[in-house]
User: Fold these one by one.
Assistant:
Number 1:
Amino acid sequence: MRDDLLSTPLQFLKGVGPRKAADLARAGLLTVEDLLYRLPFRYEDRSKMQPIVSLRPGNKAAVLGEIKSCKLSITRRRGFKIFNAVIGDASGAIRCTWMNQAYLADILVPHQQVVIFGDVKLDSSGLHFMNPEYELVTDDLTGLHTGRVVPFYEKTGTVTPNMQRKLVRQALDELPAEIPDLLPADIRERLHLLPRRAANEATHFPPNDAAVDELNAFRTPAQRRMIFEEFFLYQVGHAWRRHATSADPKPFVLKVDDRIRSSAAKILPFKLTPGQRQALKEIVEDMLEPQPMHRLLQGDVGAGKTIVALLAAIVAMENGLQVAFMAPTEILASQHYGNIARLLSQSRFRVDLLTGSTPPLHKHTLYAHIERGTTNLIVGTHALVQESTTFHKLGLVVIDEQHRFGVAQRAALRGKGLRPDVLLMTATPIPRTLALTDYSELDVSKIPDLPPGRTPIRTWVKPESRRDEIYQLIRDQLDAGRQAYIIYPLVEGSEKIDLKSATEMADHLQAEIFPAYRVALLHGRMKQDAKDRVMSAFAAGQIHILVSTTVVEVGVDVANASVMVVEHAERFGLSQLHQLRGRVGRGQWESHCVLLYQSPWTDDARERLKALADSNDGFVIAERDLELRGPGDFFGTRQSGLPTLRTGDLVRDRDVMEDAHREARRIVEQGGLSGELLQFVLERWQQQFGLIEVG
Ligand code: ADP
Ligand code: MG
C-alpha cells in the first residue's frame, strides 16, 4: 500500500464495510494509525503446544490436534445446548465442551485440524476443556488467535478483541517495509530503539520467544519504543513552547561576585541544608542566564523554601533590581513580610508590604516608592502584579504556594512587557512524572531534606470509637500550653450537612468538652477578612482549638499548635492529609496528627491512611498518592494539563517520560527542530494530546 497508509481511513481495509467502519469510529478508531496505536492491554502465551497426554487439571494449555468426533446435545432440564468435541493428537485425546454455542457444530467438524486453548478441568467424566478458545488450522491463516503469544484488546463498543486482532494483522500486512518515523535517527540509535515498523509489529504480534511477563508489564523493547515515541512527541511540544517563550533575552544581565556572596551570607541566621544549597545554586545559575528564569521550587512543608527565595532576592537586589514576593493570602503575606523585614533589617534594602487591607493613602505612597525604585522588595498578595503597580526595574518575582496561578501570572507579566525571572514555590510535592507533564515547561528544583532539629510528628490512625482518648490527648496538650486543629471534610454536594456537623461540633466541644478553653470555627463560606481575623487570633494564641471545614490555609505557620485531628480522614486524599499534618510539628514540641476514621472504610482509604502513618516524606507520599489515585485524580477537579495518551501510562511508564523529557529538550535546545517534527508540533501537537491552553 501507499506511504500514507497510516492516515488511511479504516474503511479502506479489506472486509471493513461502512457498517463496521462506523462501529470502529464509535470506538474512536478512524485510521490505520489509530488501530496500530491502540496497544493490546494484555498478552497470553498460547505458543507452546502441549501433548494431550501431559495435560493436568487447573492449568491453561494449548493443544494442536484433529477433531475425532463431535456431538451437539440438548439438556432436558433448562434446555442448555451443549457441544462436545473430542480432539486427538499423537499422544492421546481430550474432550472439549462448549455451552450454548450450538453454531460450533457447523465449524468444528471431524478431521478438521484445530488449536485449542483454555483451562483444563477435571470432573467425574475425566479431563476436559471448558469453553476453550479454538482456531482452525488452515493453510492461509495460522496462529492469529492461538498457537502464538496472543494480544488482547480492550473491547470497544461492538468491536470485539478477535475482530481487532484480525484487523490489526491485516493493517500490518499492508504496511510497507519502511514507514516514516518522527523519532530522529540519532535518538533512535543512542537509545537503541527499534524502527517504527518493527515496533508496531512486535507490540501487536510479539515473536514467540517474547517473555509474556515482560509484555504484560509493558517492558519489551517494542512497547517501550512505542511509548517513548508518544512521550517524546509530547515533550517536544513542551520543549518547543518553552524555547519559543524564553528565546528573547532579559533586559538586564545579572552577575554574582564575592561582595554579593558575603552580603547574602550576612543575613543568613543558620546554615543551609545541603538541599537548600543545591536548590539555591540551581536558581542563581538560572538567574545568570540571559533568558528569564521560570523555575519551580519544591520542598516539603517546613523545608525552608523562604530563605532560599530570599537569598535569590538578594542577588537580584544587589544587581540593582526589584523583587516582588507574592503569597496567596494576606496572612501568608504578612507572615513573609515579618520574616523578611527582620532578616533584612541590617541591610540597605527597603522592604514593604502591600495587601488589600493596606490603607489607600499608604498604598499610594507605596506605589510611588515602587515606581521610583526606592522599595527594593515588595511583599504582597497575588493582586500585587495584577494591579496597576508600575515597577522601576522588576528583576525577580517569587510566587509562593500557587504554582498553577504562577504559570498564568508569568503570562500576565509578559503581557505587560516585563520579563523578570520567576520563581514558583510549592509545598505540595508533585510526583516527578506529573511535574514533567503538567509543568513540563518549568525547570524544577527540589529541597529533599528538612532543617535539622525538627521534632517528629506522631501519626495515629484511630477509629471513631476511640474519640475519648483523642479528647484526652488534646486536653493534655492544651494543659501544657499548646493549641489544636480539628478539621472536617467538605464534600461537594453535602456542604450543608458538613457545615452543620462542623458548627455543631464546635459548639459541643466548647460547651461540653473543653469549657475552660476557647474554641473557634473557620469555614469556607466566611468572608476573607473574617477568616483572617480568626486565623490571627489563633496565631496569637487567643483561640486554643480551631475547628475548620476548610483546609487550613496552606503554609500557615503556628508553631505552638501541636495537635492536628482530622475527622473522617477516610474521605481525604493522601496529599491533602499530608498538607494538614504539616500544620503541626513546627515548634520545639513533639506533635500529634490523629486521623479519625469512620467504619466501614474502603481498602483504598485504609491504604491511604497507612501510607501516611508509614512516611513523613511528602515526596514519598505524593508518589504513593499518584499510584493509588492515578494521574487524572491526583489534581482533583482542578483543570490540569494532563495529556491524552494512546500507548503510555504516566504512572507505569514514569522512567520513559524522564528519557523523553531529556531528549526533547536536548533536541530543541540544539536547534534541531525542523521538518516533519516541527510541523507536527505546530500543526498537530495540541490536538493529538487533547491539550487546552492554560493561562
Ligand atoms: P516552607 O518551605 O514550608 O515555606 P519555611 O521557609 O517557612 O518553610 O521554613 C520553615 C522554618 O524553618 C522557618 O522557621 C525557617 O526559619 C526555618 N529554617 C529554614 N531553613 C533552615 C535551616 N537551614 N536551618 C534551620 N532552620 C531553618
Ligand atoms: Mg512557605
Note: Residues 270-273, 276, 299, 301-307, 427, 451 surround adenosine-5'-diphosphate (ligand 1) (CB under 6 Å).
Number 2:
Amino acid sequence: MKGEPLILELKSIALGYGKMTVIGDLSLSMNCGELVVVIGANGAGKTTLLLGIAGLLPKQRGVVNFSGQNVTRTATHRLARQGLALVPEGRQVFGAMTVLDNLRLGGFRVGRALLRQRVAEIFDQFPILAERQNGLAGLLSGGEQQMLAMARAMMATPRLLLLDEPSMGLAPKMVEQIFAMIARLRASGISILLVEQNARMALELADRGLVLETGRIIKTGTGRELAGDSSIAEFYLGKNG
Ligand code: ATP
C-alpha cells in the first residue's frame, strides 16, 4: 500500500549453518498485505530463508528490515512481539494439551479480555477448532493440527506470517482447506511469506512468486506469470503442483 513502509526488506542477506553458507546473496522486498510464495526443489534453502527472517539463524551478511526497522540482529521473541510469526514445517502443536490451551498459549502475552475475544474470532473463522476445543490437540487429524498451528500463530495478531510448507503430507481435501485458510488470512490484510511444494495452488493465490535454487532467486514474477511459465511448469508444477 502506498505510503506504508515495506513490511519486509532483505538486503543482500547470507544465511547458513556454522561456516556453511546456504543462501549467498538474497534480496527481497514485500509490501504490506502481500502474499509472496517461495517455490524451489528440496534443499534449495526455503526453510533456511524463513528461519533467518524469524531470527532463528544469525545473518552471515546483509540487512533485514521489518516494517521499516532494522531487525538484522533482533532476537526471535522480540520479533514475535513486533508482529512477525513463523509457523514451522511439520504441524507443531502441543499434543497433550487441548485445542483451546494451544490457542491460549499463542496469546499468552495479551490480557484476558483480549484473549477471549481472539479465541472467539478464531472459533468463528475456523469452526472445526471450535468443535474440538476441549479435545487434545494430538488427537486432531494432520490437517486440523496444521490449522491449529496457524491459528495459534494468529493469536498474537502478527503483521507478517511466515508459513513453511503448511500443506505438506495432507490429503487433497485438507490441502484445499489449508489454502482456504491462507486466503482468508490474506483477505484480513496480513502479509504472508509462504513456502510451498504445492506450487500451482500457491501461485494461483499469490500476488508474487519467486523461485529459489541453491540459495539464489532465479526467477520472480506475479503468481500468474510463474504459473504460466513453461520452464517452471516442467520442474515445479508436476503431479503435486
Ligand atoms: P526442503 O523442501 O527439503 O525442506 P528447503 O528448500 O527448505 O528444502 P533447507 O531445509 O533450507 O531447504 O536446506 C538447505 C540446505 O541446508 C540443504 O543443503 C540442507 O542439507 C542444509 N541444512 C538444513 N538444515 C541444516 C542444519 N541444521 N545444519 C546444516 N545444514 C543444514
Note: Residues 172-187 form the longest helix (16 residues).
Number 3:
Amino acid sequence: MGKRAIITGITGQDGSYLAELLLDSGYEVTGIVRRLSASNYWRIEHLLDRITLRPADLLDQLSLVRVIQDVRPHEFYNLAAMSFVPASWDQPLLTGDYNAQGCTRVLEAIRQVDTGIRVYQASSSEMYGRVREVPQTEQTPFYPRSPYGVSKVFGHYITVNYRESYGMFAASGILFNHESPRRGLEFVTRKVTDGVARIKLGLTDQLGLGNLDARRDWGFAGDYVRAMWMMLQQEKADDYVIATGVSHSVRELVEVAFRHVGLDWQKYVRLDPAFLRPAEVDHLIGDASKARRVLGWEPKVSFERLIAMMVDADLARVAAQPAPAGAVR
Ligand code: NAP
Ligand code: G4F
C-alpha cells in the first residue's frame, strides 16, 4: 500500500507538478479544491483519473478537518495561497486570511486529527524583501516588502512554532522564484514568454512591463517540487532554502526570451508605470547549500533552458489558440 498525500493548491503551478511526482512515486493523491463558478483544472486535466479532488477552503477550518479525517494522509503539502504579490496590496486582509491564518488553520486541523501527519508549508523568498544579506540563507533575517511577504513570514513562523510547541513534523521550504509553462500569465516570466509568442506570431507588436532592473533567482518548478517531497522524507523537520544561486534581471529575462525567436526586444518592450510596485524587492539570490548537503537536492534546469522551454510552449499554445491574453496586472 502506497502512502497517502493531501495537496492544497493542486490546481496551481506547483500543485500540478507535485501531484505528478507523488503519483509516479506510488502515492494516493488527494487534492483540495475550492468552489469556483467554473472549473480551473487546465494544469491537472491529464491527472484527473489518477487523483481524488475534495472541496475545502483555507478559509474554512471545518472543511479542512473533514478532508484530513476522511483521507488520513501520511503527508500534507500546503501550497494554496494568494500568490500574486501586486494583488496583495489590493487585498491585504484577504491575503493575510489565506496565507497566514490559512496556514494556521491547516496546522490546527492536522493537530486536531493526528499530530503524526507530516506537513510542508510553502514559504517564500519574498520574506527576505529588502535583503539583509547576499545571498540569502535560512539564517538571513526577514524584511518583507508587501502584504504577501508579511503573510508568508507569519506562515513560516507559525509552522516553526507548531513544530516546537507540539513536536509536529512541520517543514518550511523557503523557495525562490520558480517557473514553468504552467506559470500564471500575470507573473513576469510567463507574461514575457506569452508576449514573445504573440509578437512572433504577429498578434501584437508591444509588451508593457514594469521594473526591468529587478533581479530574481529563477528556477524550474519541476525541480522545486522534488525538494518539497525530499523535505518530508527526512528524520527531522527543518527549514530549507531552495534556489539556483544565480540571479538575472528582468531585462536579461526579456533579452533571452526575444533572442530565442530571433527578435530584438528593444523594438517591442515599453515601460508601463501600472506595473511598478508601491515597494519593490530589488534583488533576490538564494544559497541552497543546506538543501544540497542534507537533502541531496540540486536544480537540473538552467535559466536559459527554462525560458526556451516556456517560449516554445507558448508559441505552440498561442499558434493553436490565438485568443488575446487579456490585461492582467
Ligand atoms: P499558484 O499557481 O498561484 O497556485 C495557488 C493555488 O492556491 C491554486 O491552486 C489556488 O486555487 C489555491 N488557493 C488559493 N486560495 C485558496 C483558498 N482560499 N482555498 C483553497 N485553495 C486556494 O501558486 P504556485 O506558484 O503554484 O505556488 C504554490 C505555493 O508556493 C504558494 O503558496 C506560493 O505563495 C508559494 N511560492 C511560490 C513561489 C513561486 O515562485 N512559484 C515561490 C515561493 C513560494 P484556484 O485554482 O482555485 O485559484
Ligand atoms: O514574476 P513576479 O510577479 O514575481 P514575484 O513578485 O517575485 O513573486 C513570485 O515569486 C515569489 C518568490 O520570491 C513568490 F513567493 C510569489 O508567490 C510569486 O510566485 O515579479 C518578479 C519581478 C518583480 O520585481 C516585478 O516588479 O518582476 C518585476 N516586473 C517587471 N515588470 C514585473 C513586471 N512583474 C510582473 N508580474 N509584471 C510585470 O509587468
Note: The first strand starts at residue 4 and ends at 8.
Number 4:
Amino acid sequence: MANFISYHPWNRPGTEFTEESDYKNRREILKTIGLTTLGLIASPAFIQACKNPDHKQAFTSIPDSQYCENCFDFKGMKELYPAKRNEKYKIDRPLTKEYDATHYNNFYEFIDRSDDNIYNAYKFVDPFENRDWKIEVSGLAEKTGTFFLEELMKTFPLEERIYRFRCVERWSMAVPWTGFPLATLIKFLQPKSSATHIRFVSYANPKEMPGVNNLTWYPWPYFEGLRMDEAMNEMAFMATGIYGKPLPKQNGAPIRLVVPWKFGYKNAKSIVRIEFVNKEPETFWHKLQPKEYPFLSNIDPKVPHPRWSQEIEHMIPDGEPRPTLKYNGYGEYVGGMY
Ligand code: MTE
C-alpha cells in the first residue's frame, strides 16, 4: 500500500511530498503487478490522468446505488435509509463530496491491471456478488455460527455518524456513515471473558475481484483485528451505508468496519467472518511489512511512518493540507485506552 504514496492527484513527482525512494518503490511495485503505463506516471500527462475524468461530478450526488442487480438488498432495506444522524459526533471540516468518497478508494481486491490508477476500484466492482450476505462468527463467544446481515440490520437500529477518516498514505476525508456501534454487535454475540481480541476477515473471490486474482503475493483474504476494549469503544462502528444510502461496493459493501482514530487500513471492508480470540491476531499489512504497519496503528502526528512524516494530511479530492490530529481528534473518546 504505502509504496503507492506518491500516486495521488496532489502528490505528484516534483512536489515536496515525493521522495525519490518512494517514487522508485512505486515504479518497482507497479512493474511487478504488471501495470503498463509507467511513462505516463512520470510525465505531466499523468497529473491530468490521475484526476478522475468525471471530476466535475464531484459536485453532484451519485445516483442511488440501492437496487443494482447483484447488490445486497432485502425487503424494507430501502426504508432504513437515511437513518437519523447521531449529533453527538461533530467534525471540524466540511463533508467530503459523495462522489469523491466513493470514487477514490483503497480496496486492493479491486485493483485491475488495465487501470493505472489503483484508486479506481469503482470501475471493477460490478461482478462482486453480495446479494445475500452472511457473517460467520467463531471463537470465544456464546453465540457463534452464521448470521444473516439482514437479520442483524433488523435487530440493531441504524444511525448516521459523521467521522473524520485518515489513510496512512496521508489522504483524508470526512463522511457520514450509516450503521450500528460494533459494541452493540459484540454484546449480542456475548464474548467469553477469555476473548482478548477480535479478528475481522474480508470477502475474497478471484472470480469477482481482479486484485485477488492477480496480486497473488498478497495473503488474501484481507484480515484485521482490534483489542476487545477498542472494539467495545463507542467510536468503533459497523457501517452498512454512507451518505444516507447503502454502501457502494467500492466502499466495502455490504458491511465494513470504521475505527476513525486508527489509520484507514484497520477498517476492513466487506466483512464475512468475525472471530473472538485470546491473543493479538496477525493483520494483513503487518504480515507484509511488519515495521510499517503495527497492530495498533493509532493516528499520531508525532509518530512518522518509516518512510514519511504523518504531521500533515491532505483532504481528497484536492489535497488541501491540514495538520494531523492525534487519534484523528478523537482523544476524548479513545485516549484513555492507551
Ligand atoms: N479492506 C479490504 N478488504 N481491502 C482493502 O484493500 N483497504 C483499507 C481499508 N479497508 C482495504 C480495506 C485502506 S488502506 C483504507 S485507507 C480504507 O479501506 C479505505 O476506505 P475507503 O475506500 O472507503 O475510503
Note: Residues 1, 105-109, 167, 202, 222, 251-252, 264-265, 267-270 surround MTE (CB under 6 Å).
